[in-house]
Every structure is written in structure tokens, then in C-alpha cells.
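Hello K.,

You asked for the raw outputs rather than the summary table, so here they are, unedited. I folded two proteins back to back in the same session to keep the settings identical. This is the first:
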Amino acid sequence: MDLRLNGRNIVITGGTRGIGRAIAEHFADENANIALCARNEQQVVETIQALQDKGINAVGAAVDIADHAKLRSWIDHAAEQLGGIDAMIANPSAFGIGATEDDWKSGYAVDLMGTVQAIEAATPYLEKSADSAGDAAVLLISSALVAEADMESAYGAYKAALVHYAKGAARRLAPKGIRVNAISPGTIYVDDGFWGNVQRNMPELYEHYFNRNPMGRMGCPNEVAKAALFLCSPVASFITGENLFVDGAFTNRVNY
């Protein structure tokens, strides 16, 4: 299937590792242009070089997403460098897994408001894209923890808030031709990411969550990335306001 992503301009926050990196690489394989940011400058430089080696226009910068003024300024700059924005993918996380005051504060600044600020900054450019091409897209990366609550978690609460935000934004932006969707990944294994660290440092906890996967395995970033490509592509032109679980049936609730 031709996803019609050739030459599209994609902006990604949190795009150097794990799911974000996989999304960037898959878009590059479709010959889309990429602007991405993350906190670690060295990882940004390495990721941009790898994407440019695929023959696309790729740019990036080290940005602390909690610095909302800098985030908005970078999105303006990214739009200028790419020549517009056709899809905005918000993939930030402070990983406030607990419920300490710092977890709540960092999650609010990064996960929640980092997403809201990014989308607000990108909206004028998305409107121009929708006017000219007939379709533009926003994608929020949430979590399967929106449907699971073993304990109180700032991370889970903010990811749930993002799904609610996505639905409202989808209805508001639909008349402008901008689609807004969310993806809620399940247990996605990355060796240098959350589950890799849990496996090494908390093996009993890792085994507990691993064994909750009916498919007998955790997912991989590429499986989330492929869903992201579809939802951001013009092929998904009548899909908006949805929260797609990519979790291998990890969650047991019925979505209807």
C-alpha cells in the first residue's frame, strides 16, 4: 500500500530513542522529511546523520520540552527548515512512573503541557498543509496505562489526560482538515529503555509484566511505528479522534 508520505514534512518530539526513533526511521524510509528534538544533543546529532544517510532532509535540535517557550520557537524553526509541517507527532515523556511531587510536576511540564504546547505551535502550519494537500495530522503517543492502574501513577494519569485532549482537539480541528489521533503502546521492549532497565534491575517486576502479555512476548518499537505511519498518512483520511492500542492484548478492557 502506498501511504502517500513521499515528501511530507514530519515533526517529532522525543525522536532519538525507542518508539520515537523507530517512527522517524520508518517515515524516512517512506521518503518523508523529518525534524526532531530530544534532550540529548549527541543523540540528536547521531539520529539526524542516520536519517540523512537515507537520502532525506532531516534536521534537529536539543530541546528541553519542559521549556515551553524554547519548544514553540523550535517548532517554528523546524517548519521554516522543512518548508511546512504535514504531521506533528508528540512523543515526550518525563517517565514519572510514581506519584511523588516531582513525578507530578515533571509529568505535567513534559508529558501533558509539552504535548499541548507542541500541537498549538504546529497548528498554523498544519492548517496550511491541510488547505493545500487536503489532509494534515497530529499524533499523540500515550500508553496502555490509560487502561491499567495497579497503583497511582503520574505517568498513567497524564497519558490518560492526553487521550481526552486528543478527542477534543480532533473535534475542534476536523473542520480545518487536521486529524488528531493517539496511540497507546503496551509493554514495548527497548534494551536501553524502560523495560530493558527493569529487566536488568528489577527482574521479578519484569517477569510479572512480561507474563501478562497473552502473545508471550513484549512488543518492539517498529510495531508502534508502523501504526503511527498509517494514522499520519493521507490513507487514514477519515480516522480521527481515535486511541489505538498497540499492546498485543495486554489490556483486557473492551473498547467500543
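The second followed immediately with the same parameters:
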Amino acid sequence: MDSQAFTQFHVALSLVGILSGLIVLYGLLKSNRMPRMTLLFLVTTVLTSVTGFFFHRDHILPSHIVGIISLVFLGVTMLALYAYHLRGFWRSVYVIGAVISLYLNVFVLVVQSFLKVPALHAFAPNGNEPPFAIAQGCVLLAFIVLGVLAVKRFRPALI
């Protein structure tokens, strides 16, 4: 697979992971497990993080660190769901892990949007200007609020 096709594959995985993750987050808020959508979210998000390591780089970049953190949270999230079946505190571990994993994917989406979309890049060409920080702050705040609500509301029937 050539590098352009691989990049498109990686981006497609990421977008499917984000879209399915947003649907899963809605399900968490409605106390709906959505098992198939959750599996799609988890698989595509893991693959997004894993495929990110296959881009040739001479040294570790911040994106690699985000990928490692994401994989750790995804591992714990899957453990909570599939090994411990959301029993006891594992329900909260699952919700927090899923929300953080989705947030990290959206965080990278915002970074890439400011890098690749000319209109956004004009506002923050170095990635450290106020428009970039405001956008990332709003995303973080939204995920904190949604995460807290999800932990409070997600009470599925145990399997």
C-alpha cells in the first residue's frame, strides 16, 4: 500500500472511530450499551492508534505519545467491558476509558484540522495561538461535562 493510500486508510479509521464513538457516547448518556457500535468504536480506535505508528518518523512525536496513551486507555476500557462485564467500579472505568479514548481521537482531529484546513491554519499557523487553544479548550470542556454525565447516567443491565 502506498503512503497516500495508507494515510487515507488511517484517516478513514479515525473518522469511523470518532463517529461511532460519538454514537456510543450518546448511548452511555442514555444507559444503552450498544454492543455492536461499541465494538466498532473500540476496534477502529485501536486500529487508528496502531496504524499511526506505521508512518515513518526518525524520532518519537507527540502523536506517538497520544497513541500510546490512547492504547492504554483502550486496553483498560476493553478489560472493564469484556473481562469484568462492567461490574462494580468497572462500569465507571469503562465509561471514563471510552470517553478519554474518544476525546484523544477528537483532540488529534482538531490538531490535524488546524494543520491541514487552510482557513483554520491561517488562524493558528504554529498550533500555539489563541484560536487553537480555545478550540482545544472547548473540546476538552465538552468531554469533561459529557464524561461526568455519562458516569452518572450509564447504568446498564449487567451481562
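The longest helix spans residues 3-29.

Happy to rerun anything if the numbers look odd on your end.

Regards,
P.
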